[in-house]
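User: Please fill in residues for this 253-position structure.
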């Protein structure tokens, strides 16, 4: 599968390029208390903008998952501010977070996390329904999203009958359900061979460039840098640098 993004308009662009969609300011996270306290992250400040692909790189245990989980409202920080939809949500209660999370974020993980007994179409449709119980035509939206990621012909297959790259495309279609502006991935290509990993990353790149999504991806793989606008390096719980990928790495000049 080479064409990463089918060229039809089933998914509208949702924001002007460079709009800041999510912002972390001075974020710290300490797990546990007292003698068991582990400071996983300190003073992390990061902006996620429409149309931009941000890669987060760093050694194992450096705080990448903690950082991206706080950005995606999956984890509450110990200190700092999380700005989404123009408000600091760090102080919001558990009641408001799920709605805010569902409206703003789509998640893609290393392990795909598809339901084995459901077809690709059913997996995506169910996620859309779970995000929004009042979704009128979840199956229709699921079908359009699977076509968008190039999986139209395989939408009635079970996950076991799909390749790793196809499963991750299903997961990306699922993440796009409900039209969230921000796509977050924690090592989404780690289980894929190089060629497939690059094509999945190319799809995420196109969703940023052509549909105005903000894409933030944790990775160990420096080969993905060619798709990124920015590379954030995390070490020992600190953002060491936020820079451009190497000049020859940029695939979409
Ligand atoms: P990475 O994704 O870069 O591997 P993590 O964010 O998962 O790093 O972890 C950062 C640090 O926080 C590590 O030292 C890890 O052991 C610790 N940590 C992560 N999650 C927890 C947790 N739930 N409880 C205690 N320590 C944790
Ligand atoms: Mg991790």
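Assistant: Residues filled in for all 253 positions:
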């Amino acid at each position: 599968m080479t064409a990463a993004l089918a060229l039809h308009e089933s998914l509208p662009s949702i924001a002007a390029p460079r709009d800041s969609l999510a912002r972390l300011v001075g974020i710290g996270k300490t797990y546990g208390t007292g003698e068991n306290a582990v400071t996983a992250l300190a003073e992390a400040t990061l902006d996620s903008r429409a149309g931009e692909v941000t890669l987060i790189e760093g050694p194992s245990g450096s705080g990448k998952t903690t950082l991206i989980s706080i950005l995606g409202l999956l984890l509450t920080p110990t200190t700092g501010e999380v700005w989404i939809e123009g408000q600091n949500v760090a102080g919001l209660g558990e009641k408001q977070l799920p709605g805010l999370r569902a409206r703003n974020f789509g998640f893609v993980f290393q392990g795909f996390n598809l339901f084995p007994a459901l077809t690709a179409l059913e997996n995506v449709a169910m996620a859309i329904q779970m995000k929004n119980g009042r979704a009128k035509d979840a199956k229709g939206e699921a079908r359009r999203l699977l076509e968008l990621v190039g999986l139209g012909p395989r939408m009635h297959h079970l996950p076991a009958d799909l390749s790793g790259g196809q499963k991750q495309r299903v997961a990306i279609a699922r993440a796009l359900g409900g039209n969230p502006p921000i796509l977050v991935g924690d090592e989404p290509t780690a289980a894929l061979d190089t060629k497939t990993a690059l094509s999945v990353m190319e799809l995420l790149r196109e969703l940023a460039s052509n549909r105005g999504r903000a894409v933030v991806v944790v990775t160990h793989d420096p080969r993905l840098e060619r798709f990124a606008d920015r590379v954030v390096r995390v070490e020992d719980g600190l953002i060491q640098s936020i820079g451009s990928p190497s000049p020859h790495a940029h695939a979409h000049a």
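For context: The chain has six helices and ten strands.
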